[in-house]
Specification:
By secondary structure, the chain is mainly alpha-helical. It folds into two domains: about 130 residues, Tyrosine recombinase, N-terminal domain (DNA polymerase, domain 1); about 180 residues, Intergrase catalytic core (hpI Integrase, Chain A, Orthogonal Bundle). About 45% of the residues lie in helices and about 10% in strands. The chain has a three-stranded antiparallel sheet, with no helix packed on it. Strand 3 and strand 4 form a beta hairpin.
């Protein structure tokens, strides 16, 4: 584990990864052989091409393309995986659907096939009408309603952090992680990606610098304000200060693994650790951990804010949603019983 600290099921792992090599490098202008460039310049071209997507996306595409190639190798009539014919791709999608794969998985595999052909300068079978028709049919016949985890709203979160102590360093970390993640409406990757320098305490509260996120792949960054809480046990600013002081944090990752002896590690938490911390703490509070995930903090904030009558624009700004349509799925539950609910205004 490269000297990483593992505790309470939380794994600190490096966030950078080598981009997959299975996907082809960009082809030349005519699509065929790559342009003749010096080796160092060709390598830089590949680096920038891979930087167009996140490392996790490339890893997923690499895995998906290996699966497609393996399937093609088992089909005696299939001409090959690269280039692949529209009929081959359509047959592959149908096979996946019949095997019970989720539409979201099938869509990602189709995207991997599409990217591989575009980078290789080959005709893209993913854009063929017959492939589009099969994909549309899969969505209509196999589409399933997404399973949403329970939102960890203010009431539930208060119940969860009530069980955390002030003397145990792991408790200090988890209280800060839960409250900062909730109040900042942060994604898991944003939360574990924070450095100590990214949280600045001011008289008004914490100012968080989000350096990169799912919707900010170019790294423009964003500032998020977190106000002081009205109650000390649930104040995210005080919780962060207590964790930083208790762990002796001066620089580096803001949220780190803690071992059973209370030793704080040097490397940042892995995004999946957020879900494990949430599930462990909700279980300790008497809730079913299967109902919650790391995303429950973000959805919980949006739900609680909508229930409190906060304007959509303000919720979008805090959560950095780009459209009201994206936000709607989060706040709908929080506004089911607002003052405009017609069932309460018909005289029953």
């Amino acid at each position: 584990m490269n000297g990483e600290i593992v505790a309470h099921g939380d794994v600190a792992r490096p966030t950078d990864a080598v981009a997959p090599r299975a996907l082809p490098a960009p082809a030349g202008p005519a699509g065929g052989a790559a342009p003749e460039l010096p080796a160092d310049l060709a390598a830089r071209v590949g680096d920038y091409a891979r930087a167009a997507r996140s490392a996790s996306t490339w890893r997923a595409y690499d895995s998906d393309l290996r699966q497609f190639r393996a399937w093609c190798a088992r089909q005696p009539a299939a001409p090959g995986a690269l280039p692949a014919s529209p009929a081959t791709v359509a047959g592959y999608l149908a096979t996946l659907a019949d095997a019970g794969y989720r539409p979201s998985t099938i869509r990602r595999r189709l995207a991997a096939i599409s990217v591989a052909h575009r980078l290789a300068g080959q005709p893209n079978p993913a854009t063929a009408p017959e492939v589009g028709a099969v994909w549309d049919g899969i969505r209509r016949t196999r589409g399933v309603r997404p399973t949403r985890k329970t939102a960890l709203d203010t009431d539930l979160l208060t119940r969860v952090v009530a069980g955390l102590g002030d003397d145990d360093v792991a408790d200090l970390r988890d209280r800060a992680l839960l409250l900062v993640g909730f109040a900042g409406c942060l994604r898991r990757s944003e939360l574990v990606g924070l450095d100590v320098a990214d949280l600045v305490e001011t008289p008004d509260g914490l100012i968080l610098t989000i350096r990169m996120s799912k919707t900010d792949q170019e790294g423009a960054g964003a500032l998020v304000g977190i106000a002081y809480g009205s109650y000390r046990p649930t104040c995210p600013v005080r919780a962060w200060r207590a964790w930083a002081d208790g762990a002796g944090l001066r620089e580096g990752p803001a949220f780190r693994a803690v071992n059973r002896h209370g030793h704080v590690g040097a490397t940042r938490l892995y995004p999946g650790s957020v879900a494990r911390i949430v599930q462990r703490r909700v279980a300790a509070a008497g809730l079913d951990p299967a109902d919650f995930a790391g995303h429950s903090l973000r959805s919980g904030f949006a739900t609680a804010a909508a229930r409190a009558g906060v304007a959509d624009r303000s919720i979008m700004r805090q959560g950095r949603w780009r459209s009201s349509a994206s936000l709607d799925g989060y706040i709908r539950a929080g506004r089911l019983f607002d003052r405009d609910n017609p069932s309460g205004r018909v005289g029953l």
